[in-house]
Amino acid sequence: KQEVTQIPAALSVPEGENLVLNCSFTDSAIYNLQWFRQDPGKGLTSLLLIQSSQREQTSGRLNASLDKSSGRSTLYIAASQPGDSATYLCAVKTNTDKLIFGTGTRLQVFP
Amino acid sequence: NAGVTQTPKFRILKIGQSMTLQCAQDMNHNYMYWYRQDPGMGLKLIYYSVGAGITDKGEVPNGYNVSRSTTEDFPLRLELAAPSQTSVYFCASSYPGTSAGELFFGEGSRLTVL
To answer: What is the pLDDT of residue A17?
Structure first.
């Protein structure tokens, strides 16, 4: 059974810091891994999607890496801003087409 | 395109009542999913579908039923509502049957069972 864990559960940092959010999964047989952002009371917005054959994806100040063999992905946020404050979730797509989510990291960036 | 549309946005039910949460997408996505999110928690998969006429259980299917008679619609039915089903429900869809499946979400349906 695939299990997805995110560490840390919460993070509070001053503006301008570079951040690393972690996502671990127990079964390396995945099709892809996706990172999402969720603002309070809202739905989820896709940030980055990494295929199983890829090692990383970048979008603006965001960079996500994937190491399937060790069951890990990291989301790197450069030069954090207060507008980055949100909950960040990772999800893995299994070989049975299920999408399993982690519990999320709640990020607060203060001015 | 409207994307993924969920209705209703809010609903209060009494214990034992039944209701259906509606989900529709206009992107011709084969894959559709229902999740529930409890306060401070991640998303748990209830049911999913890889195409019209095909559904399968996720992590927490008990107390729910789904159907997929068309590509566009994926309703979630709650039978005999219980307080444990108080949650926010999200519907999602993704691109047809490839491993590239970026996931698109609806805005959520907040359900309270009293």
So the answer is: 96
Q: How many CB atoms lie within 10 A of CB A64?
A: 24
pLDDT of residue B99: 46
- Give φ, ψ of B85 to 5 degrees: -95, 5
From chain B residues 5-64, the ones with a CB under 8 A of any chain A CB are 31, 33, 35, 41-45, 48, 50, 56, 58-59
Min Cα separation A51/chain B (Å):
7
Model confidence pLDDT, tens digit, residues A34-82: 999 999 888 888 899 998 899 999 999 999 999 999 999 999 999 999 9
Task: Please report the pLDDT score of residue A24 as a whole number.
Answer: 97
Instruction: Label residue B47 exposed, middle or buried (CB < 10 Å: 0-12, 13-18, 19+).
Output: buried
B100/A49 touch (CB, cutoff 8 Å), yes or no: yes
CA–CA separation, A46 vs A35, rounded Å?
6
Residues 6 or more apart from A82 whose CB is under 8 A from it?
A: A15, A109, A110, A111
What is d(CA B23, CA B37) in angstroms, rounded to the nearest whole number? 16
- Specify the pLDDT at position A42: 84
Rounded to whole angstroms, how far apart are CA atoms B61 and B34? 10
**Separation of alpha carbons A11 and A109, rounded Å:** 8
Q: Which regions of chain B are under pLDDT 50?
A: 97-99
User: Among partner residues A32, A42, A98, which is closest to B45 by beta-carbon distance?
Assistant: A98
User: Distances from the Cα of A96 to the Cαs of A29, A45, A92, B95, in angstroms?
Assistant: 10, 23, 11, 15
